[in-house]
Amino acid sequence: MLEYRDIPMADKYDVIVIGAGPAGYHAAIRCAQLGLKTACIDKSLGVDGKPAYGGTCLNWGCIPSKALLDASHKLVEARDHFAEIGIKARNVGVDLEQMMKHKAAVVKKLTGGVAGLFKANGVDDLPGTGRLLSGRKVEYTDHDGKTRSLEGSSVILAPGSVPVEIEPTPLDGEYIVDSTGALELESVPKTLGVIGAGVIGLELGSVWSRLGSDVVVLEALDDFLPMVDRRIAGDALKSFRKQGLDIKLGTRVTGSAVKNKKVEVSYKDKDGDHSVKVDRLIVAVGRRPFTDGLLAPDCGVNLDERGFIYVNDLCETDAPGVYATGDVVRGPMLAHKGMEEGLMVAERIAGKKPMVNYDAVPCVIYTHPEVAWVGRTEEELKRSGDAFEVGSFPFAANGRAMSANDTEGLVKIVTDAETDRIVGVHILGPQASELIAQAVIAMEFSASAEDLALTMFAHPTLSESVHEAAMGVHGHSIHMANRKRKK
Ligand code: FAD
Ligand code: NAD
């Protein structure tokens, strides 16, 4: 009997996908579900040297970072907060080796799961590198260097992104690391520097701070999380500083040197030149689209001025029948945004007509409290001159949050003043990553604040803060004094 890997590979496919990250593997599986003969090429290898599908997200991104965030959050709960609710927990400490084993096991299970899903759906998974030639031909090179030419009726490019490097802090993989290295530190550094107070800086800075590092975060901008609602960003900054993250805004890193097993980082701020010595330094200053070696000069696909593959709203590139999705194209670099684009493209290739609603992409920062938002902020609406209404509700007045001893933060709902339609929801608080889903659903269905206010929410739940914020838009919150007069 033929083994799966011995089955001869076809040279012609309905669809060839390059990249098996969230954008690529979702596209490939949906294409196969829709009856299209599909191949998916991916070059990633796991720590065991075997193909590891799932891209950045499963191997070095969303999943391993959340494994460490969840574990380190439990540590803080047990170490610092159990006593407040009457639980005695002695000798609570960190077993970093076990924590890393847990993280690796989750990653292995999920990357193996993608390989299993490919097999179950009949996707030909091709470990190795893909390069787009002209006329939707793809040159596939396996990990032994063997090359063959494939041809697709359609091609989907989903090669993802890689960390940005900056000249003052060249990575050495030991003392100065990027996000991938920051997920693999072998011991808890006594002191840790992080460059960039963005999503990765805050999430991984929180992990190592909770595990015991003194963390200093150097951020170039004067504003903290400029894309976030100002009230929520301000409250989050206070909370993170209280937890011990020494976040320095308005700092420009000018250089670094590794001496005596320490990294000396020099930076400038409005008061002049400074330096700080740390045991490890994480550089988290953004990611860039990854197209190295992907595009033959005559393939017909163009890049925009920032190096992203140029696509329209339907993820069509300039080359007919060639699509691009995920981090390599415009828009937020988020796994779920890539997944939706992958599904949309697959269904369009199969003749269906879905669209991605780019106005309802949820964003989450998995700190504690979590920050989550969807849609427009009050500040954006002010800038565009659109009339709006706001309702908000603090978790400090929510019975379930009080019961859980987790009351930091608030829910804020922003509506169009004329139609009452919800245009943005902004949350700082426990399980904000879960709560934001109901806001996304409400916005997808064009709900008004009144619609949400008239919806029944289970009691006692954190979700009731969303309900109360919706009631607050019209001055009808029950569990707090309303700033607006009741109508
Ligand atoms: P990728 O996941 O980068 O996958 C691309 C794949 O294509 C890779 O396997 C790559 O090796 C392969 N490839 C590239 N070129 C070729 C080629 N020529 N031939 C063959 N294969 C190729 N997002 C969230 O939404 N939530 C989170 O919580 C979150 N946490 C993150 C934490 C960290 C530390 C990091 C770094 C990122 C995080 N992200 C998160 C972002 C998320 O990982 C990305 O948005 C997502 O992985 C992008 O998916 P993608 O499919 O476009 O690309
Ligand atoms: P980011 O864009 O979120 O943050 C980078 C930060 O570094 C910014 O605040 C920027 O002002 C700052 N910066 C840039 N250059 C600097 C310099 N020279 N000195 C000091 N500060 C500097 O990027 P990131 O945190 O690296 O994350 C990359 C991408 O990965 C993001 O687009 C994000 O969407 C995605 N990601 C998402 C999640 C999530 O969804 N929870 C988690 C991690 C990563």
Question: Topology of this structure?
Answer:
Layout (H helix, E strand, L loop, with lengths): L11 E7 L3 H12 L4 E5 L12 H6 L1 H20 L14 H26 L2 E9 L4 E6 L4 E11 L3 E3 L12 E2 L1 H4 L8 E5 L3 H13 L2 E5 L11 H14 L2 E3 L3 E8 L2 E8 L2 E7 L1 E4 L3 E3 L32 E3 L10 H15 L13 E3 L4 E6 L2 H7 L3 E7 L4 H5 L6 E7 L5 E8 L2 H13 L4 H5 L10 H9 L15
Parallel strand pairs: 1-2, 1-5, 2-3, 5-16, 7-14, 8-9, 8-14, 9-10
Antiparallel strand pairs: 3-4, 4-5, 6-15, 11-12, 12-13, 17-18, 18-21, 19-20, 20-21
Helix pairs in contact: 1-4, 1-8, 3-4, 3-6
The structure holds flavin-adenine dinucleotide and nicotinamide-adenine-dinucleotide.
Short description:
The chain has 487 residues and is α/β, with parallel strands linked by helices.
Overview of this protein structure:
The protein has 487 residues and is of the alpha/beta class. It has 3 domains: 12-58 and 100-163 and 288-349, FAD/NAD(P)-binding domain (3-Layer(bba) Sandwich), CATH 3.50.50; 176-285, FAD/NAD(P)-binding domain, CATH 3.50.50.60; 363-472, 2-Layer Sandwich (Enolase-like, domain 1). It is 31% helix and 25% strand. The chain is built from 13 helices and 21 strands. The strands form 5 sheets. It has a 5-stranded mixed β-barrel. Strands 7-14-8-9-10 form a 5-stranded parallel beta sheet. α1 runs parallel beside α4 and α3 crosses α6 (199-211). It is globular, with a radius of gyration of 24 Å. The structure holds flavin-adenine dinucleotide and nicotinamide-adenine-dinucleotide. Flavin-adenine dinucleotide binds next to α1, β2, α2, α3 and β3. Nicotinamide-adenine-dinucleotide binds next to α6 and β17.
